[in-house]
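Today's session is about reading a structure prediction critically. Students often jump straight to the picture, but the first step is always the sequence itself: look for stretches that repeat, for charged clusters, for runs of hydrophobic residues. Only then move on to the predicted structure, which in these notes is written as discrete structure tokens rather than atom positions. Here is the chain we will use throughout the hour.
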Amino acid sequence: MTLGEFIIWLGSAPQYIIGYFLLMPAMAALMWFIAKDQGHLSPWKYVYTTILYAVCIPGIASVAFNIYLFAFQRQDIYATNLFVQVLPILSMLVTIWLMKQNVDFKLLPGFDRLSQLITIIFCALLIMWLADKVRIYSFTYVPLWQILLILGGLILAIRYAWQKLV
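Below is the predicted structure for this chain, in token form.
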């Protein structure tokens, strides 16, 4: 099964996607009422972290997928699958907003890893976009491990510069 076939398969049964991505903000809203002003305490912060990862991983993947489709594949905006490409992002934003009302994300375990994941994906997409726009093609005898090392160094440099900016 290819990624395209998987996206088509997901879009063919939208009730599961809709149910999952409506459940996440509903759980965040429920936690807002259950753990009012206690989101930083031990049992609740792990529940918040689970909800956050459950909604952010597909949401971040959807953002990266959309950027790839629109920037590199030149997909038409009218061909966007709302359930697979838009709903995860909207659900992620609503869930994060609801969670932000009750808990400080700096107190959640693993939130720094999630922000680092976002930074790394952004850096990789930025490097790919710049390489696509500059159109410098070079056929050399450089081994693959050296190219990967250069890309890794670029990602680390962009992460370091981003941390200094923020």
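Discussion point for the tutorial: The chain has a mean pLDDT of 81.
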